[in-house]
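New to this. Help decode the following:
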Amino acid sequence: MAGYAPLAASAFLLLLTLGGTLLARLFPHRAVPCAQELETRIEELTGQLHRAHEQRSALGQGSAAEAHGHSPKAVRAWALRSGYSVPARGRIPVHILEAWRAAGGPTS
């Protein structure tokens, strides 16, 4: 769901912009201050979104070993030595993981 945050923020900013245009048409006597307030708020929100995106990028993604509790590279090497057919990339089949754990691999 985190991948949808920039899209949701962009949609929100679009609604703010459209809302400002609509308010300016409905209340012309208030248009200039309202538009300026909206522009200021949009700039603030855009800055917050940019900072949040930078923080998320800085965090990066953990390794597969951290996420799954095992090193896919180690499991693949064991599987090949043990006679299993294992894909070089992608998910390791469950039956291979179970066999690896039964043979003494970590249980986490």
DSSP finds five helices and no strands in the chain. The mean pLDDT is 77. Residues 64-102 form a domain with the Dihydrolipoamide Transferase fold (CATH 4.10.320).
